[in-house]
Amino acid sequence: MSATPSATERPLKFSSPYLRADLVRDAVDYTIEGRTIVVNPGTTPVTVAEVPRKSIPPLSSTVLADTRIEKADALLLLRPAAEDVEMTGITREPGWHHLADLLGPGEFSRDTPLHRSAQDEINTVLFDPAYILGEREAALDQREFNVRANLWFAPAGTDCFIHNTHDFIEVHTQVHGLGRMQRFRDHDQASLYQDVLMSPGYTTPDPFCATGPQCSYHYPMHQYRADTDCVWLAIEYHPVPRALRTLPVPTLLENR
Ligand SMILES: [Fe+2]
Questions:
Q1: Per-residue pLDDT for 246 more than 70?
Q2: Which of 51, 97, 163, 238 could form a disulfide with 146 if both were Cys (CB 3.0 to 4.6 A apart)?
Q3: Domain boundary at 80, 111, 129, which?
Q4: CA distance to 39, 164, 223, per residue, from 191 (Å)
């Protein structure tokens, strides 16, 4: 990848020899060198400089190779070392933990081999959650969100746990292997009603949740299932309490 003079670029905390992961800010006419998973974590489309002009929609991703991005406030660029790399070793990289070690005692089964990387702070964005989640046709109530990203790993055949509580909006991008995000009627594998299959570079369309009262989010029962050894990216949008809003007015206006 090559940075234009205006762009800033840094490795994400979970970048490793298994998987190079970079954050690019303020990209203008930015060259993507080689085959790369390009994630648009923002709420405006990111245009690819090809004909016909097409864009990466908000909160989504694609795989690009040797092309240019016209403009983007933020991009996440992910490049696995090789498609056939033995990914299990990524969980021995610094910052990775079994989820049972990250949560309190008894919160998560050590029998489920789900591992999480270090989490990185990406940026702060403004959007109307009801608009982004497809609940109304116009953005009426802009709110501030802290954007955080981390990787997950689970080996082939892992059902990563059915759950339905998050105090943020989450979006998932497949990075390595074949997996799926699944929705259920209740906390029971037999109650599955939707199976979203994911291959590298694919982001689940439309976050799974709906807005709830007082900036909460209502999720269906859902889980990630790894069909092969899988690495996937989670991007979390954490609402900032209004009393703590930090963006200066000009930035608020620019992001509308
Ligand atoms: Fe979840």
A1: no
A2: 238
A3: 80
A4: 31, 14, 12
Distance, in Å, from the CA atom of 48 to the CA atom of 150, rounded to the nearest integer, reads: 25
Query: Which of 27, 118, 120, 13 is closest to 75 using CA atoms?
Result: 27
pLDDT tens digits for 182-211?
999 999 999 999 999 999 999 998 888 999
91 and 55 inside one domain: no
What is residue 252's predicted lDDT score, i.e. its pLDDT? 40
Residues in the chain: 256
Cα 148 to middle of ligand 1, angstroms = 14
In a domain, 254, yes or no: no
Query: How far does residue 242's CA lie from ligand 1's centre (Å)?
Result: 25
Residue 5 binned pLDDT confidence (cut-offs 50, 70, 90): low
Other CB atoms within 10 A of residue 82 CB: 9
Centroid of ligand 1 to alpha carbon of 15 (angstroms): 22
Count up the domains in the chain and report the number.
2
